[in-house]
């Protein structure tokens, strides 16, 4: 049966198309450089927002009209799988992501929860045999249930640590079975509310112990997907331990975990941390740690994680610039960790939202590719740092300088002349490139 009767397969019709259920810029087969758009962008649907979210907010109940709402329990879980693969097919989506609790309800016991998961994973596995859609990553939800009130691996309660370990163990087994490309650790409630009741050192040590156990278990079962940490500065806790890329990187280095992880960078988490999306991508990239992306956007007027579908073309362009400079995302992808607004409650809105996100990233890809091809910013940056290619600058880079030689050099300096950074000129160039791609029909 069809859950989205009003929607046919969404295809590329080009920028002049007036069909709202068509791609205007995302043409999966179109080559950008030596890869197709589909290969570059590796889009993924987030199961939780698209098939589970109901639009509830702190002031009102759910509004979403979903064709699977007439079911409950395991029937609902099964209907969601059917609907999911219909949407994947209609949107031609290559990947999806889920938390354990998104796909199957928790049972009265952990054993029962496992059974529910096994039933649904069997069903997903069956669908995956004939579908092109693969699992980008899965994860364990270690934050919704009241048992995780004080966190999971950083809980003050060792029973909770054990329970969380069991959930991740099962998650890794599912990842292996479904051939997940990655496995994600987002910090859930791994953080604190007040230092007055918190042993921060023990909590961080325990988080590291937990992650080492996960690494060991993945090795034991032969799961070779990439482990990803998804930083976020706050929400739900006041201070999340994986605050941003730099903080999480220091943690991974301190505890000997760096070689086993990369980062899953979410745009709205970056902005919550007071950074831009591209800042977080850049920090991860220059450390060889850029793994995957949760593609969404926040609202600059709101201070929380609004998880909107990405439509800001500056942001998608600068993100794709980092991703291309990284040589792509490898096993990662662009996962729409994004939800339709509460007022966009019809099933078709799920399609409009994904089309908006996919077209916005397709534009970003094309613009970023041209910017790099023409070396627009590279040549400026190269010129800007030219002083390090010769003379005293070269000596600094080559390790031939010390405070003595630098002092001697400085004492002989007459005038120091700096050059303009030309920000405004560069922003105009960015606009020109954006307009060229968008206006070309
Ligand atoms: C929460 C968030 C999560 C992770 C997966 O802000 O982004 O959905 O992506 O647990
Ligand atoms: Co996310």
The number of distinct structural domains comes to 2
Say how many strands there are: 12
Mean pLDDT score: 98
Spatial sequence of strands, sheet with the most strands: 3-4-5-6-8-10-11-12
CATH class of the largest domain: Alpha Beta
Number of helices: 16
Q: By CATH's scheme, which homologous superfamily of the largest domain applies?
A: Divalent-metal-dependent TIM barrel enzymes
User: Beta-strand level of the residues, as a percent range?
Assistant: 5-15%
Name given to the CATH architecture of the largest domain: Alpha-Beta Barrel
- How many strands, what sense, and barrel or not for the largest sheet? 8 strands, parallel, barrel
What fraction, in percent, of the residue positions are helical? Answer: 40-55%
- Which regions have little confidence, pLDDT < 50, spanning 5+ residues? none
Rg over C-alpha atoms, rounded to the nearest angstrom = 24 Å
Predict the CATH topology of the largest domain: TIM Barrel
Listing every helix as H and every strand as E from the N terminus to the C terminus, the arrangement reads EEHEHHEHHEHEEHEEHEHHEHEHHHHH
Alpha-carbon distance between the termini?
Answer: 38 Å
Q: List bound small molecules.
A: D-xylulose, cobalt (II) ion
Shape: globular
What is the SS-derived class? Answer: alpha/beta
């Amino acid at each position: 049966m069809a859950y989205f009767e009003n929607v046919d397969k969404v295809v590329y019709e080009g920028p002049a198309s007036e069909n709202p259920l068509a791609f205007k810029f995302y043409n999966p087969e179109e080559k950008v450089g030596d890869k197709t758009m589909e290969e570059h962008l590796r889009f993924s649907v987030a199961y939780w927002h698209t098939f589970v979210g109901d639009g509830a907010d702190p002031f009102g109940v759910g509004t979403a009209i979903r064709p699977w709402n007439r079911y409950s329990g395991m029937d609902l879980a099964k209907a969601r799988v059917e609907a999911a693969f219909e949407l994947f097919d209609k949107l031609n989506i290559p990947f999806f992501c889920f938390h354990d609790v998104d796909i199957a309800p928790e049972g009265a016991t952990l054993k029962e929860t496992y059974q529910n998961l096994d039933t649904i994973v069997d069903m997903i596995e069956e669908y995956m045999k004939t579908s092109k859609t693969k699992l980008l990553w899965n994860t364990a939800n270690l934050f919704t249930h009241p048992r995780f009130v004080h966190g999971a691996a950083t809980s003050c309660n060792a029973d909770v640590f054990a329970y969380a370990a069991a959930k991740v163990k099962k998650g890794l087994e599912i990842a292996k079975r479904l051939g997940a490309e990655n496995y994600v650790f987002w910090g859930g409630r791994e953080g604190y509310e007040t230092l007055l009741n918190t042993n921060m050192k023990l909590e961080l040590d325990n988080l590291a112990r937990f992650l080492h156990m996960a690494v060991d278990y993945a090795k034991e079962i032969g799961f070779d997907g990439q482990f990803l940490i998804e930083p976020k500065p706050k929400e739900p806790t006041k201070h999340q331990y994986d605050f941003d890329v730099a903080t999480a990187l220091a943690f991974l280095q301190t505890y000997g975990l760096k070689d086993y992880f990369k980062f899953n960078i979410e745009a709205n988490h970056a902005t919550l941390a007071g950074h831009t999306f591209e800042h977080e991508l850049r920090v991860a990239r220059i450390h060889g740690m850029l793994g995957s992306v949760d593609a969404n956007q926040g609202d600059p007027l709101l201070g929380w994680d609004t998880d909107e579908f990405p439509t800001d073309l500056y942001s998608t362009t600068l993100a794709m610039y980092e991703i291309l400079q990284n040589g792509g995302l490898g096993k990662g992808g662009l996962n729409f960790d994004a939800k339709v607004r509460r007022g966009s409650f019809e099933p078709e809105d799920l399609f409009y939202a994904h089309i908006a996100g996919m077209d916005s990233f397709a534009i970003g890809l094309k613009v970023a590719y041209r910017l790099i091809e023409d070396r627009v910013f590279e040549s400026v940056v190269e010129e800007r740092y030219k002083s390090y290619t010769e003379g005293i600058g070269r000596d600094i880079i080559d390790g031939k300088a010390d405070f003595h030689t630098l002092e001697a050099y400085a004492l002989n300096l007459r005038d120091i002349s700096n050059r303009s950074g030309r920000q405004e000129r560069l922003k105009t160039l960015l606009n020109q490139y954006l307009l060229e791609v968008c206006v070309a029909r």
